[in-house]
Structures
1.
Amino acid sequence: IKWGAKNIVFSPLGMCQVRFGKLPSAPNSEKLYDLVFVGSNNRSSTPNIFSKFWWGGRRREQVIKKLQRQYKDRFALYGNGWNPSYSKGPVPFDKQQEVFRDGRFTIDAPPYSFSDYYTSNRHLFQIASSIPTIMFETPRINNVFRENDHCYYISNKINLINSIEEFLKVDKEELHYKA
């Protein structure tokens, strides 16, 4: 039999359509921030060089510090475990989309795993907020979220700041049209 789908990807992620949903495009007014990140700092203070989770947490901290140094008050950091001198603290789970809409872009940090299709359900909230989303690429995730349609990918192997600067140069109308 030659019927049926040829490429099925099972993803255990979902988004509650009652608490969250696809929001209309955000007004193209002046945004409070260039970048908004929501996520926790879960790295253990006890080094464990054999743990992918520990290395992932370390990478995440490095990226956040780099973004903070570069963008200062144009970067909004929300979540548990971050230095309170530059973090806005945790955001209630069901208020994430509102926070994302304060930025020109939402951005994630390097994931804790680089397994095929690895992602977080937070990406669904980011994309549904109708704010352009910058995601770190994990293997094969582009089969789930299409680049320039659902999000913009960046790689761990490129210069993060240069990539973000290129995104910030793009016309706001064009970005919101795509979001």
Note: The radius of gyration is 17 Å.
2.
Amino acid sequence: PSLLGSTSLVLFYYLISSGIENSRIIKITVNTLVGAITLNTLITILSYFGLYIGTASFMRIPNFTLTGSSTTSLLLAVLATIISASLMFNNKLKINVKALYLVSTLVNIVLIGLLNVWFGWALLIIGAVLMVTMLKPETIGQFKLGLFTIVLFAGLLGAINNIPQTKNLLSRPGYPLEI
């Protein structure tokens, strides 16, 4: 982002955070952030495969996203993956809410795997290591199925993108990350 955009975000944070009165508002905000990023990820995945959400000419460019570029969508997908995965390990949540966080995590990992950019994988690994070190071990152990699913899914996508025989299965060689 530009200097003006970064400054605006910092000012927005301090203006908003001083007015938060309870944790419910924070939960709603974080859930909305994860939902919005996951929606953007779904639209980016559709655009990756040439399926467009509208008929307007600007919606038919090769890498249409709500953020303007696939690289920005990738970075947001990494952020949403880490946030939704860490929220999934919250002990107080019902299983259906954990399942929604799991689906959000997997959808965002799909975009990271499809674009297959080294910094996307690097940020995901760094974020996952930080998440695991910040969570209590018993918290992670209580939802082993979710952790197993995430690790298996990311491993499969990584393998598909890096094994020579399957490398062209999901990749689009001419797909532009930036236009």
Note: The chain has a mean pLDDT of 83.
3.
Amino acid sequence: AQPTEAAPTGAVIGVIASRTPALASWLAVNVAAVARDRIAPVIVADTVPGTLGAGALLGHSTQAGLGSLLRLPVADIGREAVQAELQEGSSGLWTLPAANAPREAELKAHTLQAEAVLAQLRRLAPLTVLDLGTDCDLNVARIAPRLDLVLVMAEDRRAGAMRATALIDTLGELGLEPS
């Protein structure tokens, strides 16, 4: 069954990787899959327009999804609009995929729309896991303080560890407490 409006207090976990976007996607999918056994429904949402993310790992492709929502006026990003872009997979997870369309990267500047999408995702499921990619861009900077938890995936090389430390510091500057 498609996610329907729940209490506006669904938890949202963001996943960001220090260097490799596919690792953030992989971790986001796995966190959601583990949680799905105890919580349903669970939504996995891409947050980086124009790139392949968690949705692609789950086999979802679209020319709409996240990009369609980020193009809407904020007032039009309601429950129905977000539900219409969700895809259910054989894994039992719902996804909000981004299109594999590099030109959609310009939608990263649509921060108010990203906040509105996040607010609706909170209302649609008890748990949403966001694939934040690898950068603290405008969207991440705006939505990070509204997340319940951010997982930072550090990679095993020195540069990956240095980048993870920088990401943690940046997230702290945005108001997230390290734990």
Note: Strands lie at 11-17, 42-46, 87-88, 94-96, 127-131, 149-153.
